Amino acid sequence: MNHSKILELLPYAAPFRFVDELERVDEQGATGYYTFPPNAGFYRGHFPGHPVTPGVILSETMAQIGLVCLGIYLLQDKIASGQQPGVAFSSQAVDYLKPVYPGERVKVVSEKVYFRFGKLKCKVQLFNAQSELACQGELAGMCSPITAQL
Questions:
Q1: Averaged over 95-122, what is the pLDDT?
Q2: CATH code of the domain in which 61 resides
Q3: Which residues form the domain of 101?
């Protein structure tokens, strides 16, 4: 499955889509990029006069690139047969090491720990614009094709 197809299948839209580009997606992990817009609404209140990207947004960026894009890739056979991908974030343990500021382009790198019984677990790292490790952790989610809408 090519990168543009994976991006097309992401279940997110602006302003809550935190994936600009995929560099690599294979059976073992994913690598991608996102640039935080300087005018994003969350910067107005976090923190006034000294904006920093909230940790929850960094975690979501890690999940979208490192977990969801990989999950879509791993479900590609089911998707090819006409089923829609379903990926739900289920847990995280993330350490925040450096701030990420408005306008920074970050790089997310994930490594699959396991994918079995529909559960995907990954080690994920996020690097800031200076290529410094800004946060890292383990993220997990449930990945399965959606066969019927509720």
A1: 97
A2: 3.10.129.10
A3: 3-146
Distance CA 62, CA 47 (A): 22
| Average pLDDT, integer, range 79-102 | 89
Start-to-end C-alpha separation, the chain: 27
Residue 3: how many CB atoms within 10 A of its CB?
Answer: 16
Count of domains observed in the chain: 1
Beta strands per DSSP E along 4-76: 21-26, 29-35
Q: Rounded mean pLDDT of the chain?
A: 93
Look up 50 and say whether it is catalytic: no
DSSP single-letter state for residue 67 = I
| Catalytic hit among 46, 78, 121, 123 | 46
Q: Residue 19, Cβ neighbours under 10 Å: how many?
A: 19
Residue 96 CA, chain-centre distance (Å), reads 16
CA distances from 113 to 34, 53, 67, 103, 121 (A): 23, 27, 11, 31, 5
